[in-house]
Amino acid sequence: MQASLTGHLVLTTVHANNVFDVFSRFTHMDIDPYAFASALNGIWAQRLVRIVCQHCGAEHAAGDDERAALGSAYAEAGNVPLRRGAGCGDCRGTGYRGRKAIAEILLLTEEIREMIVDRKPARLIRAGGACGRHTHFARSLH
What we know:
There is one protein chain. By secondary structure, the protein is an alpha+beta fold. It has 2 domains: about 1-50 and about 100-140, Rossmann fold (3-Layer(aba) Sandwich), CATH 3.40.50; about 55-95, no CATH class. It has 7 helices and 5 strands; from the N terminus they run αααββααββααβ. The chain has helices at about 1-5, 20-30, 35-40, 65-70, 70-75, 110-115, 120-130, and strands spanning about 40-50, 55-60, 80-85, 95-105, 135-140. Helix 3 (about 35-40) packs antiparallel against helix 6 (about 110-115) and helix 6 (about 110-115) runs antiparallel to helix 7. The protein is elongated and about 55 Å long. The two termini are about 30 Å apart. Mean pLDDT is about 85; it is low at about 135-140.
């Protein structure tokens, strides 16, 4: 934290489920919220997702349960067709072959910094502070 506050570029890792969970992780480490908010410029969270096998994967229409799980984002995306792998020799019967990294980026704004200093819960930061500066994207990293 001290190196970051003196102008040095510091990159670190922390285990969290998404960019907003990072705030609570550092709070549990007893990091001073003011120093944390001052030192932090952005958060990158990533996870690996399985890729549907190219050989046995086929498009299918989303069922009611899948539409419900995907929520309004699915309808906003134009109800794109989903793919499901049946299982074959190439994927060892799993329907999946390989993985792709997906990432979520949060660039801190003054509003978010204030919410961190005020020790607001992550759900409030997600709802109020991240509008317009929070990005989801998928990019293959292989």
